[in-house]
Amino acid sequence: MKVGTAALTVDAAGMRAQNSSLLLNMIWRERQISRAEIARRTELSPSTVSAIVADLEHSGLVRSIGAGVSRGGRRPTLIGFRDDAFSILGVEMGATHVSVVLTDLRGRVRTHRSAAQQVRNDPEGTLKTVRTLVQECLDAERVPRRSVVGLGVAAPSPVHPSAPGKMSPLILPAWRGYDVREALSTTFDLPVFVDNDANLGALSECYWGAGTSGEDLTYIKLATGIGSGHIIHGDVYRGAGGTAGEIGHIAVDSAGPPCLCGLRGCLVTLIGSGALVERARELMGTKGRKAPTIREIVEGARAGDPAARQIIDGLGQYLGVAVAGLLNLLNPAIVVLGGEISSVGDLLLDPLRASVRKRALSTSMAETRIVTSALGDKSIAVGAATLVLQAALRDRTLFPLQHVGKTA
Amino acid sequence: MKVGTAALTVDAAGMRAQNSSLLLNMIWRERQISRAEIARRTELSPSTVSAIVADLEHSGLVRSIGAGVSRGGRRPTLIGFRDDAFSILGVEMGATHVSVVLTDLRGRVRTHRSAAQQVRNDPEGTLKTVRTLVQECLDAERVPRRSVVGLGVAAPSPVHPSAPGKMSPLILPAWRGYDVREALSTTFDLPVFVDNDANLGALSECYWGAGTSGEDLTYIKLATGIGSGHIIHGDVYRGAGGTAGEIGHIAVDSAGPPCLCGLRGCLVTLIGSGALVERARELMGTKGRKAPTIREIVEGARAGDPAARQIIDGLGQYLGVAVAGLLNLLNPAIVVLGGEISSVGDLLLDPLRASVRKRALSTSMAETRIVTSALGDKSIAVGAATLVLQAALRDRTLFPLQHVGKTA
DNA sequence: AAAACTTCGTTCGCACTGCGAAGAAACCAG
DNA sequence: CTGGTTTCTTCGCAGTGCGAACGAAGTTTT
């Protein structure tokens, strides 16, 4: 189990691990597939495929699920992935809440819990809440610790690749000294993976949403803050310091209002939830002085309220400036918009696309699809679980098998 | 030699190929290293290392170069990479010239030729010029075709990953129907690799310039056009449609002048060579109405001419807007500025860094170094050759060995 | 100067892997 | 029911990396 820095060498065992991983991924993707078909696609010999499938079957990750249709001879035995073989925990730490999901190996939510929690200034309380909710999820489904692959965490902060678990001292100063990974890993005795929330939203879309086949994708989270995450070559791209995707602080209007970060006209100051709500209070009838919620803006826009429509239009236009820059620089295949406000769909996409078209090269536009997320409000937490799934599908040893190596 | 789509399977031969590649790269990087040291670093067994090195030695890529210093026992035999074992051709197609280099396996230029050539509207003439220059380079060094690994081409156009060789119909409409790769590959009977010029500038920096150890890097080419290239995980990143890095058409000033591309305030309209020269004519003494050249601006700035300094300052400020966006979105470890104007060094870097600091999150700034290129005017052509080198170091079979497989 | 120790590189048998040929099993078509 | 087809397994083979043992070539100690 070499985990050295350079170690990319292969020996006989590594060869098996690699091919085994390839097959496992193929079976997972196809849901059901015969040995013969696997052999054809991978160009591995039938004998090798049989041997590896036997291994996988023995470890409980796949199983035979009856016969398929004949192609003019003996009917193939279909192999299926056992989605329920293990569970995965996903945690979302939002700005004002914590939410936990327990999923199977297909990203389906089996149980979920959430609670209001001030995350920004209360690390101790947040960790306690997370622990409680996680335990509740485990208890609710009577899931033994043994059958949990790991725990993924979505944090509202950039995460440095070399120190996952530590929060950014600039974004979450109160978390100085805390290590989320460390803390939860010791509590539950599980592998813990931490990443930025927008990155995990992107991963979620890549696996369960708009990402059809692992193409490069960018996810933009429209909420209190504006964040984005990139999937490049099937992997979350984090940049040199883990801050790739901080689209919220791109300056789109040099004459705009000042931002907490010290700049002017940041995207977040113009289209963050706070700004939208503020704008709504100005434009919409302020019944009793109470500021409307994002949900009300969404409903208003759907109902045809001109003020709400106007807010969405403005959002689309500003966002278009940033997205145009994104397309020119990165040229992703898909851009997905998430966050509550994105549920207005075309009402947002139309002005956005128009704004982008005015600003991006037509070559980069032509190949890029811009869509809104179809995943629900648990997409970030599910994305956190997906981070674990992705790691395990690549390295089978992460599955908590009884390690029945044939040597034993 | 499986080159299928999915094929990532490994058999015994693939295992050897992979380990062999690893060693080859290590020897290339270290220049000289003993078998024992290789074994320690790779965690391969000494016997395996010896066997593979024998293979490589037999193929002429490496050789023994005497003994190293003892570590308290027998002195190690140092193995060195034979930089001169093969040659590589690199071609730069600029806006108004074509330039060809013949390099060794260490990026050193052995011969070079260049000629004025209108590339944009004259595909036929351009290809002819390229053929002539390449042949001249080969003749000058009496290099037999057999010892050339391949030919790399830097094109002033985005290159679509699925059709390298075809130019973008929007940028170079006159090239419709031409396939550079096809054309040159048949002429010289060599593998041909084509990529965008800025991408290859980035690759050049990654191998021979500011890129110290394969960190993520962005290169920005300041010339007639403004382009950029990203190196991610040691590889050129091309995006979904090959247009990643089109930084030149990012809008930095919504009130700016209209651009050929149809937008307003594109970076290129503000800091492209044309704009700089135009500005210079306004500010500097226009002796005899003749517009100054970029070179004159550089010299003026160095000599302390306030007008030239002012131009450079403006350049730095505008560029800073785009770079700030780049840092927030991609968070590279290094940003390298290339192109003739970048030779003013700190005179440009100071205002640029100040501009960036005003606009980028301090977290992404902290980890990013911004520098000017130290490579000469042949860096793009050398980058084209490097593309070939990179491919061959990964897949040894690209070296035109006499394929003396031990079976023969 | 000789002996003891250290490091380097090679040799050889072993275990494991994937492959290919052969064969058994299962199915379809006439 | 027979011939052809496809699926899957069995078994011997070739190639690979590993580990132990060994010789080679230095350095350090006696």
Automatic annotation (TrEMBL), chains A, B:
InterPro entries: ATPase_NBD, ROK, WH-like_DNA-bd_sf, WH_DNA-bd_sf. It holds the Pfam family ROK. CDD domains: ASKHA_ATPase_ROK_BsXylR-like. Belongs to the ROK (NagC/XylR) family. PANTHER family: BIFUNCTIONAL UDP-N-ACETYLGLUCOSAMINE 2-EPIMERASE_N-ACETYLMANNOSAMINE KINASE, ROK (REPRESSOR, ORF, KINASE) FAMILY. This is ROK family transcriptional regulator. It comes from Myxococcus llanfairpwllgwyngyllgogerychwyrndrobwllllantysiliogogogochensis.
